[in-house]
Amino acid sequence: MTGFVGQLLNMLLAFITRTVFIYTLSELYLGINGLFGSLLTVLSLTELGIGTAITYALYKPLAQDDRDMIKALTDFYKRAYQIIGFAVLLIGVGMLPFLDKLITGSTDLANIRIVFLLYVLESVASYWFFAYKATLLTANQQKYIVTLFSCGTSILTALVRIGALFLLRTTPTIAFYSYSALGILGQIIKNALIGHEVDRLFPYLNEGESRKLTKEEKQPIFKNVVGMFINQVSAVMLTSVDNILISAFISILTVGIYSNYIAIKSYLVAFIGIIFGSIKDGIGDYCARETIEKQEEFFKTMVFTYFWIYGFCSICLWILIDPFITGIWHSPLLPRFAVLLFILNFLLDGLSGAVYQFRMANGLHWQTKYRYLFSAVFNGVISYLLIKPLGVVGVLLGSTASVLIMISFDPIIVYKNVFHKSAAPYFLSYLAYLALIFATGAAVTAAALPFSEVTFVNFIVRMALCVVIPNGLWILIFRKSRHFSALKDYGMQLFRQFFKILGGKKKDVSA
Q1: In sequence order, what are the residues at sequence separation of 6 or more whose Cβ sits closer than 8 angstroms to the Cβ of residue 103?
Q2: Which of 393, 142, 119 shows the shortest CA–CA distance to 249?
Q3: Which of 52, 400, 474, 506 is paired with 136 by a 20 to 30 Å CA distance?
């Protein structure tokens, strides 16, 4: 609930900030912002997935209150992040002479090297200044504390950025520099606040010297790091490389147009992440305690939940995203087929969310290394080959190919290693859910057709159709299913706990 309220405010301010950015600057500045954000995501690959590996390694010592091991892991993570931050800085500076080759179109609006260096420093700040301490809270199922400070500093940064854009709107280049520099300050403040809270909750971390991890203790961490690194390569190829290819082969202006779609998707993903991100570590604990049968039943309920949420959001995107971008930001639009592929990628990836959650909670990073590597290379090759003849559509087709590989192999790995059986029933349910979403989307599209003109009233009508038709139809179909009943029960528990917290009562841990 902390995440819900904070992220809602954060998303609202992010949207307002983007709107102010578009009106005070231009799509070209937006394109530079999107490209450099993507480049920094590529640079984040130097993190190697060590954060996830350390989180997994911390579950057991935290449960057993093994303070010696907790201190050793935390100190190891601290030293690793110091090295990673330095590596990001070194690679970022090394990329400065080659930035021109990644941009097609005018960049005379600002010194792109100064801007990129500011983005690099923000990334470095995310590794230095106590950043490693947030992992301890996440592994201890206290991620709400991280969320609280992260949302608080993000809100503060957004407000200051909005103020800077308004005050400096007559000098757009200076406004852009200020906008970029303020991200560094926000990152440092966030890390410092989280670090102070960790020191308060775990005072023994600063008591005496911590021992070094043995070779045997490091081995499973390094093994998971290798698996996670290849996994992250795939994730980057699926998202950030799109912007880089579009900038290099089409134009930086197209990056700005495409980034509007990415921004709206990121708001949705962040909102959905509030629901599922907070339970990831709880799944690890659940899998350690419960029988395989109970784990599988819970997994099926999660699959159903992902179907409902991502199916609903995908239909909303298809019906509302173009009129929203046109009506609010007055921005040019992508071709409609490109929008369809964009939403399809979002849907295909989202429907496999339960598989991802169980794979992460069970530490199955090494087992997916080859699949991720193949997926990443395949996406890059297809996107490169198709971008010249098909433009943005070619890039999105490459992403679709990558997603299809992921959703084909991951369920097999989870079912084999967690449930010890064939994944065939999962694939059948996946296809059935996908077909139902397409059929429902077609019905909503037909109902919304008379309201295609971009007006405020038509947008509200289309929004109402998106809410009523999918949810009404699916409730009618699934009202007697055990997964719908379980989902409804979980929702009721969540709201009961929320109102208990609002009433000042202590949370019932057993619920």
Answers
A1: 32, 35, 112, 247, 248, 252
A2: 393
A3: 506
**Which sign, positive or negative, has the C-alpha torsion 192, 196, 202, 208?**
positive
- Say if CB 179 and CB 21 are below 8 A apart: yes
Give first-to-last CA distance, the chain, whole Å: 15
- C-alpha–C-alpha distance, residues 285 and 357, integer Å: 12
Asked if 405 contacts 414 with a C-beta cutoff of 8 angstroms, the reply is no
How many CB atoms within 10 Å of residue 306? 23
Nearest to 341 by CA among 310, 368, 366, 318: 318
Whole-Å CA distances, 237 to 84, 119, 398: 20, 20, 9
Tokens of 404: 């299809």
- The answer to whether 272 touches 313, Cβ cutoff 8 Å, is yes
Closest CA to 313 of 259, 350, 274: 350
* Distance from C-alpha of 451 to C-alpha of 106, rounded to nearest angstrom: 38
Decide if 507 contacts 501 (C-beta within 8 A): yes
How distant, in Å, are the alpha carbons of 180, 218, 398, 403 from that of 239? 21, 31, 11, 11
Global pTM value? 0.71
Residues contacting 243, CB < 8 A, separation 6+: 34, 35, 37, 38, 255, 258, 259, 262
- Which tokens hold the place of 266? 């990121």
Q: What is the DSSP letter of 454?
A: -
Output the DSSP codes for 401-441.
Answer: HHHHHHHHHHHHHHIIIII-S-SHHHHHHHHHHHHHHHHHH
Asked whether the predicted pLDDT for residue 484 surpasses 50, the reply is yes
Find tokens 């098909």 and name the residue. Answer: 390
Torsion of CA 496, 501, 504, 507, to 10 degrees: 80
Give the three-state DSSP class for 72: helix
Determine contact, residues 313/470, Cβ cutoff 8 Å: no
pLDDT tens track for 194-248? 888 888 888 888 877 777 878 777 777 776 666 666 666 666 666 667 777 887 7
